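Changelog-linked ticket: 2'-deoxycytidine-5'-monophosphate example.
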Amino acid sequence: MHNATHNAIPVIAIDGPSASGKGTIAELVATELGFHYLDSGALYRIVALAAKQQNIAWDDALAVAECAKNLVIEFKNSQIFLNGADISEAIRTEEMGKGASRVAVHAAVREVLVDLQHNFCKAPGLVADGRDMGTVIFPNAPLKVFLTAATEVRAQRRYQQLINKKQADNDTQSSYADILQDLQERDARDQGRTSAPLIKAKDAILLETDHLGISQAVDYVLQNFQLKNCK
Ligand code: DC
């Protein structure tokens, strides 16, 4: 559980659906405040990648959970290592995004990742992004933001990202329509699962980014954090 030691350390929980911009915004807020940053989605992506490498089906809850228990994960600056190998790029594909969403439905898998996520909560503070940061992992976070945008806007952003990255794998062949459909499926799975579904925490601020630039969204989060801190 999110214990008393953690409560003394400020946490900004940023949740929302895929491609809502929460990763970029969370990272910038963390840099601005000098806080640590937790990209919880990366953990589910790592589990999906490791399962695939070990020929474990993403739907096999117990086998995936067992696999997750044995992973040695290291975050060094912006690189991520799995059992010593740099997998920073390998986890960013559409395939691993889908795999992450599939392994994330299993309560047993989520349970394995709880302590790992709590360990990110260190002084002077943490910005954590994901689906259940404000509802399950850091329920006492003084500031919770639920970031979202229309599905079409998010699909367009993801499509543009893939074009910009010119990934050398199948992703470059994905059409906008494929991306849109993938996002819809992923939203439905993330929102519809029984274990820690994607939902706005009651005390979260809703931030819709359809017509909002990144720096505006960052400023909005920072302003709200200052307001909470002054209380
Ligand atoms: O944020 P992302 O796109 O990297 O996340 C990939 C998937 O991981 C997402 O579709 C659902 C899952 N996830 C989760 O269930 N809980 C989190 N806190 C973060 C991600």
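Closing comment: Example verified and attached. Confidence is low (pLDDT under 50) at residues 1-5. The CA atoms of residues 143 and 227 lie 10 Å apart.
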